[in-house]
Specification:
The protein is α/β, with parallel strands linked by helices. The protein has four domains: about 325 residues, TIM Barrel; about 55 residues, no CATH class; about 180 residues, Class I glutamine amidotransferase (GATase) domain (Rossmann fold, 3-Layer(aba) Sandwich); about 35 residues, no CATH class. It is about 30% helix and about 20% strand. It contains 17 helices and 24 strands. The strands form five sheets. An eight-stranded parallel barrel has the order 1-2-3-4-5-6-7-8, surrounded by five helices. Strands 10-9-11-12-18-17-16 form a seven-stranded mixed sheet. α1 packs parallel to α3, α13 runs parallel beside α14 and α16 crosses α17. It is globular. The two termini are about 20 Å apart. The structure holds beta-D-galactopyranose (GAL). The site of beta-D-galactopyranose has 11 residues, from loops.
């Protein structure tokens, strides 16, 4: 597989006589892919049925004839203003009951059938016209499902669709009332059409109701995407892709990915560090211009799973963005490092966002590879460098990891519905697990709970709503918990109580959640934060708290962990477990990360200073590639 670069381009933002100049410059820079069209609905169809596709055809010709492969994005994330005259009730509705306004993007409700038909129509029109176009080599559906908190909508359309979903899922009122425990507080319903959405209740709604609504909302995204995928398949053999976002967990990405050929995601390392990561001020200062050393890798590995092995970075930050609270510029070299890191994790392509900074509208402060005046930014030279390095690069696959982290979206929704402690967040727990493994130099796979685990020597399963059945006959070493297997599918306490792991006599008798200042000290040093569980049972206690309570229990290779370790403790615990699994680890210096392909070992220096480790020195924002 030849790994390549590309860029996102908006021909509709520039004069037509500029297109050929831009295309030639992209080719000269060594870029191979160009993504276009995903927000252009108002120019493709300025009024209902008034189609203007010729400009897009000309843009595709110009780009294609210059030697670029084109990805068309369906424009459904930006329904134009006239759409609202046709479908005034198509807007997504917030939990407080307000409709989201027109004037940015993603304002539609996934449940609105009228809007879904409009999407079907425009996708069909584009697919018919361009499906066989020789320059169009891939399609993107919509843009960043769920971004800007748009998965969940409390509209009338969502209410009706949720009632249908409940009827199909539970079949009878009695089954639903029992599954949700509606006898509590006399919440029983007589018919499905009485079921409202779980917002605007006096005190908290029933968490089972919330989780059911979240499952439904996720499924609406899957169904919305499937409409476009099915149409595109009728007209093209090119791969279908969606560009997911970072730390968006509101819908089941594995389920959306099942209908597509390639997963991609939009990587904004510096924006994410400042805007969606729990970290100390020191950490944020240290990585200010590089981004967090694990955030990109986590998503690379996650989306490799979502794409069933095939994945891209569809948008790569090239310079300061506009949308985080603060938007520093990357260290020189980072636009290169980020791209190489993606390739080391198996990306087929990395596209920078965007070609040229727009001097107007919301993202006028967002850097591109070119400045607003079309002069190059520093990222263009770095992209050129990566492109020429890639040209020399042998065709390699990602190495098979020996260890996997199970990540599940339903668990994210469950703990949002019922956090129990204000800072219990599923993504955070999974991410801190991943980070601890990376500090030990481990390459992890991230997998869905139904993934066959037989190829792995070690599996990490923190925070899963239900204990995955795949763990039942797992012969390797497993680190399970905290909180794993503590609930049923409908978010009630299972009887017998969790985690219900065959062969491990250990029950969680009681849990407590802890404010940020509280620590449960462990006997040999280290501590648990946020969460602690009292364990019952005859399994062997392998770690205790200072006050003598069991902190970990095990039977053979199955280990259960009763709390959420702090960063150093997590590394210690994982080191102990990996030793048992006979997996080699190395404690890496702060900011240094590594990743193996089949044939090469990559080193990435995320730190702001040079790092010397095992006889190699790596400059900040630099990489080292060694043959294995
Ligand atoms: C992404 C989005 C792009 C652009 C970019 C800015 O989330 O897909 O359209 O808005 O962010 O960083």
């Amino acid at each position: 597989m030849k790994r390549v670069l590309g860029v996102c381009y908006y021909p509709e933002h520039w004069e037509e006589d500029r297109w050929a100049i831009d295309a030639a410059q992209m080719v000269e820079a060594g870029l191979k892919w160009v993504r276009i069209g995903e927000f252009a609905w108002s120019r493709l169809e300025p009024g209902p049925g008034d189609l203007h596709l010729d400009w897009l055809a000309r843009a595709i010709d110009v780009l294609g004839e210059a030697g670029l492969q084109v990805i068309i994005g369906t424009p459904t994330a930006t329904p134009p203003r006239w759409m609202l005259n046709k479908h005034p009730d198509m807007l997504a509705v917030e939990a407080e009951g307000n409709a989201r306004g027109f004037g940015s993007r993603r304002h539609y409700c996934f449940s609105h059938e009228g809007y879904k038909n409009e999407c079907r129509r425009i996708t069909e029109i584009l697919a018919q016209r361009f499906g066989k176009n020789p320059h169009v080599k891939a399609w993107q559906t919509d843009n960043e499902y769920g971004c800007h908190e748009t998965t969940v909508s409390y509209s009338a359309a969502a209410t009706r669709a949720f009632q249908d979903w409940c009827a199909q899922t539970y079949q009878s009122m009695d089954a639903l009332n029992r599954a949700w425990g509606n006898i509590f507080w006399s919440m029983e319903y007589d018919s499905f059409d009485q079921i409202a959405l779980p917002n605007l209740t006096v005190t908290e709604p029933n968490p089972a109701h919330v989780l059911a609504f979240r499952r439904f909302s996720s499924n609406q995204v899957v169904r919305f995407n499937r409409v476009q995928a099915n149409i595109l398949r009728q007209h093209t053999n090119a791969p279908l892709i969606h560009n997911y976002m970072g730390r968006v967990t509101d819908f089941d990405h594995y389920a959306v990915g099942a209908d597509l050929d390639i997963a991609s995601w939009d990587s904004y390392p510096i924006g994410f560090l400042s805007d969606r990561l729990e970290a100390t001020e020191d950490h944020k200062a240290r990585y200010l211009r590089q981004g967090d050393p694990d955030m990109q890798a986590f998503h690379h590995d996650l989306y490799r799973a979502v794409g069933k092995g095939r994945w891209w970075v569809m948008e790569q930050q090239p310079g300061p963005v506009n949308w985080a609270p603060y938007n520093p510029a990357p260290l020189p070299g980072m636009a290169r490092l980020w791209a190489w890191e993606a390739f080391a994790h198996g990306a087929e392509a990395v596209l920078y966002f965007r070609w040229r900074q727009a001097p107007f509208a919301q993202e006028q402060m967002h850097a591109g590879l070119l400045r607003p005046d079309a002069k190059p930014t520093p990222a263009l030279a770095e992209a050129c460098q990566v492109a020429s390095e890639l040209a020399e690069w042998p065709e390699v696959g990602t190495a098979n990891s020996r260890a996997a982290l199970i990540f599940d979206y339903a668990s994210c929704w469950a703990w949002e519905a019922q956090p129990q402690g204000a800072d219990f967040d599923m993504f955070r727990l999974a991410f801190e697990t991943y980070r601890a493994a990376r500090k030990l130099g481990l390459s992890l796979d991230i997998v869905a709970p139904d993934t066959d685990l037989s190829g792995y020597d070690m599996v990490l399963a923190p925070g899963l709503l239900e204990t995955p059945q795949t763990l039942e006959n797992f012969a390797g070493t497993a680190l399970i918990g905290p909180r794993t297997g503590s609930k049923t599918t409908d978010l009630s306490i299972p009887l017998p109580m969790g985690p219900n792991i065959k062969g491990l006599d250990c029950t969680v008798a009681r849990v407590e959640s802890l404010p940020p200042s509280a620590r449960i000290e462990l006997e040999n040093g280290g501590a648990f934060l946020h969460w602690f569980e009292e364990l019952d049972g005859n399994a062997e206690t392998t770690l205790t708290t200072k006050s003598g309570a069991a902190a970990m229990m095990r039977a053979d290779k199955l280990h259960y962990m009763a709390g959420w370790p702090d960063a150093e403790t997590y590394v210690d615990i994982l080191e102990m477990i990996t030793k048992k699994a006979e997996i080699e680890t190395t404690r890496l210096p702060d900011g240094l990360r590594r990743r193996d392909t089949d044939t090469h070992r990559f080193w990435f220096n995320y730190a702001p200073d040079p790092i010397t480790f095992e006889n190699r020195t790596i400059q900040p924002a630099d990489i080292k590639i060694e043959k294995l």
